[in-house]
Structure formats: C-alpha cells, structure tokens
Amino acid sequence: MNASADNAKPSLDALIGRLSALHQKRIDLGLERMHRLLERLGHPERKLPPVIHIAGTNGKGSTLAYLRATLEAAGLRVHAYTSPYLVRINECFRLGRVGGGALVGDDELRAALEEVERVNAGEAATVFELKTAAAFLLFAQNPADVVLLEVGLGGRLDSTNVIDAPAACVITPVSMDHMDFLGDTLTSIAAEKAAIIKRGVPVICAEQTGEAMAVIEAQAKRMRAPLFAANESWHVNVEHGRLVYSDERGLMDLAAPRLFGRHQFDNAGLAIATLRAVPSFRINHAAFEAGIVGAEWPARMQRITTGALLPWGPQGSEIWLDGGHNAEGGRVAAAALGDLEERVSRPLVVIAGMMANKDALGFLANFAGLTRHIIAVPIPDTENAMPVDRLADAARSLGMRVEPAPGIEAALRALAKLAYEVPPRILITGSLYLAGHVLAINGTPPA
C-alpha cells in the first residue's frame, strides 16, 4: 500500500465512526430522513443514468455481479452500489469506467461522505442512509450508462427506494430472514421486497415459493408493471454442464457460470432475463457469454487458493468460503458441496460463526447429511455475534460433533493435527462478517 493510501484510510475510518454516532440505531427503516437529505444535496438521485433496482433475500449480489459483468462486456460504463462490505467500505461503491469499473478511491469517497455530513448538519441519520446518499452523489458526478442499485434491507422503507422510475426492478428469491424488521411470515417479507415495484416498470422475478409469488404478482398487477417470472416468461436449464436460457425471443446456449453452485445458473438466468426485458439494453450473445463466465463475487462459494489460510490447514485440503447466513443460504451452499462431493469425494468439515439474530438450527440443518464435524468460532470485532456455546448447542441438537475454537487460525491448525486418508474439504460459513474477517486475515480483500 502506498503512503497516500496509508494516510487516507485512518481519516476515512474516523469519518465513518463520526457518522455512526449520528443515530443510536444501526438499522432504522424509513424514508423521511432520506428524502430530506437528498433534497439538501440537490436531488442527485434524479440525475442518474438508467437504474436497475435489485431486492430479494438471497442472490442479490451474485445477480448484480452477472449484470455488471455482462453490461461491461457490452462496452457500457456501470456504477454499482452494494452492501454490506466485507473488508473495506469502498467495496460498496463501484464507479463505471470505459473498459471496466473500479472501487471508489479513499479520497473521492471521503469527499462525498463529507459533503453528505455537511448538508446533514448533525441530524439523526443511519450510516446506511448517509452511505446511500453518498452513492447517489458519486454516481451523479461521474458519467455512466447504467446504475445497479442493491437494496440494503427489505425494500419498502429501504434508503435505496427513492428512484421514481427505474429501468427495471429485480426480485431475487425471497425467504425468511431479518424477521425482526420485515415481519415473521413469508407473505410479509415478500410484501416488503415487492414494494420496490414502480408503476409501469418491468419486474423480473426469480423462482419463488407460492406465497411469495402471489404477493409479487399482486403488486405488479396493482402497479401495472409487466412481470417476467422464472419458469413462466423465461427458463434456465443445465444441459451437459452448460447454461441454456430460453424465452419468447429464442434460446441461448452459454458456458457455465464462473461462480460455483447450481443456484448460480438461476442467478445468471435472472440477470439475462433482466437485460432482455429492457428494450434499450441491446446485449449480444458474446457479451452474455463473457458476463456469465467473467462475473466475480467474493465470499459466495469462493475457493481460497492463495493467502495465509492455506498453510494453517491440513496439507492438500480444499478451503471454501461462503457468507450464507440463513436457511436458504445454507441450502444452496450444501447443494454446491453435494455437487463437489459427487465430483471428488472428500471428508467435509464446517467451520461456522454466526450473528446472534440468525437461525443457527435452520442454517446448520442443511449440512447434517454431509458432515458430522462442526467447529464453532466467534466473529471478531463484531457486535451481536452469536456466542460459540449457543452455536455449538444448535449443532449438537442435530447430532453433530462440535468443537469450539477461539478463531479461524486455531480451527485450521487443529484440523491440521488430525489424520486424514484423504485431505478434507473445509467450508468456512455462517456470516458475511465472518467472511470479511477471513478475507482480511488471508490477505485477499475484494478489489
């Protein structure tokens, strides 16, 4: 790292700390503060190129990654706003450039946040609201062709839900998560997500449960928004390891996604359907292929192939990292592990750390048929992490053998002392906060 970056980072961290003190709650859903802040900034959200707004429970980031890679392969400049970040706050803001975008630099991000801080004038606002306002400011100041905007939490009252006429609204699979904010039924959660739908704007929807789909269909009808739903308007199949996409305009035979897991075929299909649903996006076959193959999204069934972790674990072992943290996230990760097991059989060990408000039993149950060995670890430097003994109790109730460890390094070194006929496959999972910690100590932060 160069000297200027070294000097900039502490002041950026200090600024984030200052902004965090403006509101006693980390999450406080509502749009009144956001509208007031954007008005003071001169409404940068009204000065953006076409916006694709993405809500859902799982798969938002991966779908956005396919959209970005495909649009960039078509020669377009793409701004992207995502959350949460894994290692550095800069990851939330990607600025479009000719030839491919880049994370915002420290100086540019600090300037945008300081401007937001100035106009906010010390009033109560959550960090997410201030970050989102800074994103709109950055995106309005830098020319681009498309903005990809990921919902932070829910949709209806999320700070991103201030775009009056996006080019498209995308809804990824909806499942149970964040029940303390969004309600404790699938119907209520789906209603929060579907509230991003705008009048007359195309809605592209992943495969859903019957309950969630009924809510989304009703909202689309209410808003007179054309609905393009998976398995109705468009279809994705896996044939001979390739992605075969079809809709009323025809069929595309594409290479398999670079991101691992059967669910990534569905996420890639959702991205394709989105770009084909908006007439102004003219994407050719070559760009779709390049985007599907080239998309990157860290901590989603990511194989760790370099860095500090490898020497700590058993020699010859595979180390995988996945930020899944709810029952559905556990299901798709377990399915991906099942595919790996069919290809090359190895004993599986799961190293897990979770947040206190997550359903540990529902998450870990997905792995009960794949492994009996769980190592429970804390999540360092994180408020509201689940105590290791509580996580261990959940695993034991599923009949799993559980060992606590004080951290990732200790867990891997303990595994290295065991005798294996075949080097194990190790999955580190349970939280994006844990995934960020792993990437940081491994020396491989997202770029």
UniProtKB/TrEMBL annotation:
One of its GO terms (molecular function) is ATP binding. GO terms for biological process: folic acid biosynthetic process. Residues 315-431 form the Mur ligase C-terminal domain. Residues 54-274 form the Mur ligase central domain. It catalyses: (6R)-5,10-methylenetetrahydrofolyl-(gamma-L-Glu)(n) + L-glutamate + ATP = (6R)-5,10-methylenetetrahydrofolyl-(gamma-L-Glu)(n+1) + ADP + phosphate + H(+); (6S)-5,6,7,8-tetrahydrofolyl-(gamma-L-Glu)(n) + L-glutamate + ATP = (6S)-5,6,7,8-tetrahydrofolyl-(gamma-L-Glu)(n+1) + ADP + phosphate + H(+); 7,8-dihydropteroate + L-glutamate + ATP = 7,8-dihydrofolate + ADP + phosphate + H(+); 10-formyltetrahydrofolyl-(gamma-L-Glu)(n) + L-glutamate + ATP = 10-formyltetrahydrofolyl-(gamma-L-Glu)(n+1) + ADP + phosphate + H(+). Gene3D superfamilies: Mur ligase, C-terminal domain, Mur-like, catalytic domain. InterPro entries: Folylpolyglutamate_synth, Folylpolyglutamate_synth_CS, Mur-like_cat_sf, Mur_ligase_C, Mur_ligase_C_dom_sf, Mur_ligase_cen. It comes from the Bacteria. Keywords: ATP-binding, Folate biosynthesis, Ligase, Magnesium, Metal-binding, Nucleotide-binding. SUPFAM superfamilies: MurD-like peptide ligases, catalytic domain, MurD-like peptide ligases, peptide-binding domain. It is an enzyme of class 6 (ligase). Pfam families: Mur_ligase_C (PF02875), Mur_ligase_M (PF08245). Belongs to the folylpolyglutamate synthase family. Functions in two distinct reactions of the de novo folate biosynthetic pathway. Catalyzes the addition of a glutamate residue to dihydropteroate (7,8-dihydropteroate or H2Pte) to form dihydrofolate (7,8-dihydrofolate monoglutamate or H2Pte-Glu). Also catalyzes successive additions of L-glutamate to tetrahydrofolate or 10-formyltetrahydrofolate or 5,10-methylenetetrahydrofolate, leading to folylpolyglutamate derivatives. This is Dihydrofolate synthase/folylpolyglutamate synthase. It comes from Bradyrhizobium arachidis.
